[in-house]
Every structure is written in C-alpha cells, then in structure tokens.
Amino acid sequence: MSAAQARQSGNTTYLELSQESGGAHKFYEVTVEGTTVSVRYGRIGVDGQRQTSAFPTVEKANTAAAKKIAEKVRKGYAPAVQGQRAARPVTHRQVTSAPSTARATAPVLWRFRTGASAFGIHVDEERCWVGNQHGSVYNLSHDGEVLAHYSLPDGVKCLVADDFWIYAGCDDGRVYDLSSKVPFAAYEIAAEVDIFWLDIHAGVLNVSDRNGGLTVIDHEDELQWSRNSSGDNAWMVRADDHAVYHGHSRGVTAYAADGAGQLWHTATNGNVLFGWQEENAVYAGTGRRVVQRLAKSDGRIEA
Question: Domain span at residue 68?
C-alpha cells in the first residue's frame, strides 16, 4: 500500500498497527493544517502523545506529513477507523519482597515508610525519590522531609532520571513524567514487554524485562531495536552514548547503542538485581550480596 492510499479524512490520516499474540497494538495519526503538522501516537484505546511542527510553506508541510505516513506504512501500519479496536488489558506481574537480612554496617540517618512495597528509588544531589505498589511517589529531601507526593494509576516498579526530568515506570505499561506539577504519560510500553527496569538517555527509552529482553524505544514510542540476553529477570539497564548495559541472571551484557551487535558479556558472582554506571564503569549488585565493578570498554571485572 502506498502512502497516498493511506490518506483519509481530508487532512487527517489515522493508521493502526495491531499484531496477534500480544504484539504491537498502537496507532499513529497525522493532521495537516496549513503549514502545521500535528502527530498523535500511542497505544490503541488511549489519547496518546502529541507533537506539532511548523513549516515555512504548505507544500513542505504536506511533504513532511507524507514522509511520516510512508514510514509507518512501511512498518506495517494500515488505515483504520478509530474506536473499532479496543485497548488491550495490561498484565500485572507479581513481585514479592522481604526485608533485607544483611547486617547494617553504617548508621541509619532516617527512615520513611511509604505504606506499601517500594521497588522504585532514585537519589540525586538534591532529592530522594521513592515509588510503591500503590502508585504513590514521594519526593523527599536528604533529611527525610516530604517535598511532594504524586498518585499514579498503578504500581511503580522503577524511577529513573534524564537531565532535568524524572520518570516512573508503572504496571499499567506506561512511563510517567514527574517533572511538572501534574504527572503525564510520556511513553507507552508494548503489552508484551513485562517491564523490570528502565533507563532513559538522550530521549531514548531502554527497557529490560522479566524474560531477559532489552527493548529500545525512541521519543515517538517507536521500537528502534531489541535483543534477548542469555539470562532472564533483567533488573539492570543503563545507557550512555556508546552502549546499553543489560544485567540479568547470567551477568552483564553490553550492546552497541545503535543495536549493531553485542560488545561484550561478563558473568557476575550471582544474578544481577540492580545496576549503576559512572563515566568508565558499570556496577552490578547481585543476589550474593556483592557489588562488582565492570569496565565499560571491555567488561573486565575491576573490583
């Protein structure tokens, strides 16, 4: 089907991509109004995200719109009637937690109870963030004072930051932006991705999942590339300009940032439960209560 055949409803084109067996289930809508092109996209059944671009002439606006439509048609999108397909239910995963049995080796400065199991945590130079299974996200000072409280529609599994933005990954399959006073859904995760952890770098979302998968999605909620590592339960994903570092039950695997291939793999002392990164190294916290430092360049264990 050509891009011209995909044109419908005057200046608005509405396309959908719906795959069986829990695959993609999303829409893409392009509207041209004079020199303005508006794009709306997301999972079928929700309002989705919106982007607007202005062009110097009507001709250039139409050309840009046709290009966007053609790209989607090549990826399998087809004309559809909005509302005929229903939203898919999101499958919630059950994760159990228990208090740590490790003996404390540092003094406790303060404690804060969120009221439910809390998997999402992020700490920076200014604040501490924590999100729980009731959908509550708390913003605290380094003294434990509550600075803000957000209520999200579903359980929070992880919190990540990118420059000045803070994001929460939730069990409803969405990633919420908490940078403004009112949270909003910034990304829609595909139903087949059972999210365990997130990292966002330069506007690109990296998702690690229960099955050991790694999915990379751009700012338009479009899949860029994906890989399946050798292990499962991938609780670590960190990204920089050069690579994406994926931690799972069999260690840490590094992939080229553009998805060109695997750079290295290093087995760790236990399954990876959390990860962190600095300029030249990544850190993997494992189920054997150790933290290992790996060189980003080649994956060798440094400590």
Answer: 12-79
